[in-house]
Amino acid sequence: MAIFLTKDSRVLVQGMTGAEGSRHTARMLAAGTEVVAGVTPGKGGRSVDFGERAVPVFGSVAEAMAQTGADVSVVFVPPRFTLSAVQEAVSAAVPLCVVITEGVPVHDAIRLRAAAAAGQTRIIGPNCPGLISPGQSSAGIIPADITSSGRIGLVSKSGTLTYQLMYELRDLGFSTAVGIGGDPVIGTTHIDCLRAFQDDPGTDAIVMIGEIGGDAEERAAAYIAANVTKPVVAYVAGFTAPEGKTMGHAGAIVSGSSGTAQAKKEALEAVGVRVGRTPSETARLMRSALGRAAA
Amino acid sequence: MDLYEYQAKELFGRHGIPVPQGRVAETPEQAREIAAELGAPVVIKAQVKTGGRGKAGGIRAAAGPAAAEQEAAHVIGMDIKGHIANRVLVETATVPFEEYYAAFLVDRAEGGFLAMVSSQGGMEIEELAATDPGAIVRLPIDPVAGVDAGTARLLTEKAGLPEAAAEVLERLWKLMAAEDALLVEVNPLICTTDQRIMALDGKVTLDDNAGFRHERPGEERTGSLEDRARAKGLNYVKLDGSVGVIGNGAGLVMSTLDVVAGAGADPANFLDIGGGASAQVMADGLEIILADPDVKSVLVNVFGGITACDAVANGIVTALGLLGERGHSRPIVVRLDGNNAEVGRRILSDARHPVVRQVSTMDGAAEMAARLAAGA
Fold this sequence. Notes:
The structure holds 2 protein chains of 2 kinds.
Chain A: E1 10-14, H1 19-30, E2 34-39, E3 47-49, E4 54-58, H2 61-68, E5 72-75, H3 79-91, E6 96-99, H4 106-118, E7 122-124, E8 130-133, E9 137-140, E10 149-156, H5 159-168, E11 174-179, H6 190-199, E12 205-211, H7 216-227, E13 232-237, H8 261-270, E14 274-276, H9 279-289
Parallel strand pairs in A: 1-2, 1-5, 2-4, 5-6, 6-7, 10-11, 10-12, 12-13, 13-14
Antiparallel strand pairs in A: 3-4, 8-9, 8-11
Helix pairs in contact in A: 3-4, 5-9, 6-7, 7-8
Chain B: H1 5-14, E1 22-25, H2 28-38, E2 42-46, E3 59-62, H3 65-75, E4 79-80, E5 83-84, E6 88-92, E7 96-107, E8 112-118, H4 125-131, E9 136-141, H5 149-159, H6 165-178, E10 181-192, E11 197-199, E12 203-206, H7 225-231, E13 235-238, E14 243-247, H8 250-262, E15 269-272, H9 279-290, E16 297-304, H10 309-324, E17 332-338, H11 341-351, E18 356-358, H12 362-373
Parallel strand pairs in B: 14-16, 16-17, 17-18
Antiparallel strand pairs in B: 1-6, 2-3, 2-6, 4-5, 7-8, 7-10, 8-9, 10-11, 10-12, 13-15
Helix pairs in contact in B: 2-3, 5-6, 8-12, 9-10, 10-11
């Protein structure tokens, strides 16, 4: 089992005919993903050859869904077109829309969140690596060959830290790893993923990766205390980040006393979540939570 | 991007939000001329992107042009919490009858917009929120409907502001929406003795991601390493330590800084080469870091997702070729994992460069970089 994405998921790619879109479509196919359609306005009727497989291109999300039964969209369109691409996916009522695009204006992120709230679409991202259920399907850009399938769930604001933890725990494996993105406004939060992992019979334990900025980790801590019975291990990045400076992720900025790594660590530890000082220590904590020795 | 007060007020002016008359000056002489034009008592305000200007002596009253010149001479060049005031805003002095607070901002937790309005302006809003949270009216703003006349009136009524302020609130929201601002804050928003509403101060943060659909004020170039890095498209933040850090992905680099600190050293910088970096980007990054004389050792920490480790290794070899001619000899500790890691490691071992050491784990690499920076 897994959350949000399984071997039965049928994936369409918005922006598949672009450089990034086609490159990552090839990688998703190699990871075993059922990529069934591409969508590029004005380019319907063509297809893109990926060696073993030619993927048809449609002019709209609705048409691609009607023709192929796609139920997941992965968005690779440039920032200036992202809002309208996601609005189109939401209007077509695609159940899951994964927005990889980096550099989406925050006002657009707020609008696409509002659109999703009024419709039936779950949005992951923007500015995220997407999600992977190893051995089943990959929607986004998370490398498929650094880990294996297993029973750990992972949710993270950071892409490369996701990869690092997936790699450190590759022998135990993952049910699903979700990169929710580090922007200030995102579609799916830590809490949404915690809820889904708690309900997923294929997940035994959860790794949560946070970083400075906002209060998502503090809110997650309160949610865990009230709702999560599976073991949760956490890691927070940014203890040495200076106040008021943006560290790459638009969301990773500490202002005033809230949003510091220390405050997040304390909030998580107060509800019994063990927090690693480094990614490696976090992996060790997960092993001990599962009663498994290092490989 | 945070705007200076004078830039924020220029934007206010364009959106029909009343501000005191005034202009920015870079020299005491200019301040004198502006004061003479305004022909009334003026205020000289240091232009720095930080709070607490008043307490630091960066806001001064001047009765006329001569005093304006004198006061500006005091303020220009002043260091306020590490920010140098290169300019002053010279404005007609305005006497508030009442002071309010008004702001629109992005509410991260709710993923939406929020209005915050209070009849108790003038003080730091964090302070007010702590001492009298009930004095601040908070209202979520629908991203599509925005703030119309009705919403603006609701805000003024709830917060106890005069009705005349509603129109200003509506215009502040229009600015927020039209300029892709993340924050528009007026503290204080004032009512004068003759019942005019006016923005006496202004703080605006614009969304850098939305630059493609706006004309934006240019970033100042100071020739700093951060500027040089930005010109090369690199995300670099200078810190105070001696271990230079390069990695891919903001989260991993922040984590690397923490692990270096845990190993007992202080990181010299944050540098994220991003996803899918080429050899050239890696070489540019290394060059920037080694241009910092405080750097005693460098830690390259890459987990290849999209980024291919062979490109990173080639970038290191290229950069060292260029830098070697300039007599560079500081040690570089490299940890590569993920996409093409084995090829990358082989490229580095084959190059046999005397300053490069490879370590297989992030923690081990940080420890070695810390040791080398300490001169051990």
